[in-house]
Amino acid sequence: MNRPYIFINVAMTADGKIDTFERKGAAISSRRDKERVDELRASADAILVGGNTLRDENPKLTVKSAARQAERIKRGLSPNPIKVGIITLADFPPGGDFITAGGTRKVIFTTNRTSNETIETLQSLGVEVFVHDAPRVDLTLAMRMLKKIGVERLMVEGGATLNFEMLRLGLVDEVMLYIAPMIFGGANAPTLADGLGLTRDTAIHTQLVDVEKWDDGGVLLKYIIGRN
Ligand SMILES: NC(=O)c1ccc[n+]([C@@H]2O[C@H](COP(=O)([O-])OP(=O)(O)OC[C@H]3O[C@@H](n4cnc5c(N)ncnc54)[C@H](OP(=O)(O)O)[C@@H]3O)[C@@H](O)[C@H]2O)c1
Fold first, then answer.
1. 26 CA: nearest ligand 1 atom
2. Is 91 in the pocket of ligand 1 (CB under 6 A)?
């Protein structure tokens, strides 16, 4: 297998939105779901996010629980998984949480649209930068590289465009959805998978393997996807 085992995790509303039309990273997870996400993060070797999520939210992507961090250390791992960003033009603020929080390995896949100066700034902050000579990052190649640097289990934390591209390219093994009991609406609010979309003939088929109904009104769904 020349790529990691890859799973997407999202929190979405009953109408399939993963944020409001304002795109400010609206809170969707319940308290219990945040714990579940923390456990998932602790189980991953690396966590991947897309360019817009990186730019707009600059997420920490760290394991919050000290006990889970300690358990990782006991297993010979770093307290936090490797953070990975996919961004065409790496123009996100270098002083933000993605770079500074958690003291872990950071990897950015970008394109030749990112200036040498920005690449050098990122490298000086300890970020490993891979530059693809293409209009967009080659996700298949990026996944191969992650495997090469030791990532066996990769968690994808959005956003909508990256999720779609990963699914479209057959790079996803599992999708976990927490569906919160609320509706955001909005034609332009992001969903689980945006991008250009597929026709009915090319739809990705999923197999529902687990359903949990939670006391907080939410539902947890787990799908697996046939491996390409
Ligand atoms: N509820 C949740 O679980 C959750 C989790 C994460 C994010 N979100 C939400 O998702 C929204 C962001 O989603 P989004 O669709 O706007 O952006 P995104 O998926 O975070 O990032 C997409 C960007 O990734 C970069 N990219 C480079 N190569 C790519 C490739 N081959 N395939 C795909 N992307 C590539 C591009 O950056 P360039 O722009 O540089 O070209 C592209 O615009 C936010 O509102 C955020 O709050 C929700």
1. 47
2. no
* C-alpha–C-alpha distance, residues 85 and 166, integer Å: 13
pTM of the full structure: 0.96
Question: What percent of the chain is predicted at pLDDT more than 70?
Answer: 99
Which neighbouring-strand residues pair with 10? 177
Q: Does 132 contact ligand 1 (Cβ within 6 A)?
A: no
Q: How many residues does the chain have?
A: 228
Separation of CA 140 and ligand 1 centre (Å): 17
Question: How far apart, in Å, are the Cα atoms of 217 and each of 35, 53, 177?
Answer: 16, 27, 14
Positions in the chain whose pLDDT score sits under 70: 227-228
DSSP H or E stretch at residue 70: helix 66-74
**C-alpha 51 – ligand 1 centre gap (Å):** 5
The alpha-carbon radius of gyration of the chain (Å, integer) is 17
Which distant-in-sequence residues (6+ apart) come within 8 Å of 148 by Cβ? none
Look at residues 108, 103, 91, 192 and name the one whose alpha carbon lies nearest to residue 142: 108
The residues pairing with 174 across neighbouring beta strands, listed in sequence order, are: 7, 224
- Cα(224) to ligand 1 centroid in Å equals 22
From 216, 139, 198, select the one nearest 171 (Cα to Cα).
139
Residue 53: what pLDDT?
Answer: 92
Phi, psi angle pair for 210, to nearest 5°: -160, 140
User: Based on the number of CB atoms within 10 Å of its own CB, is 28 exposed (0-12), middle (13-18) or buried (19 or more)?
Assistant: buried
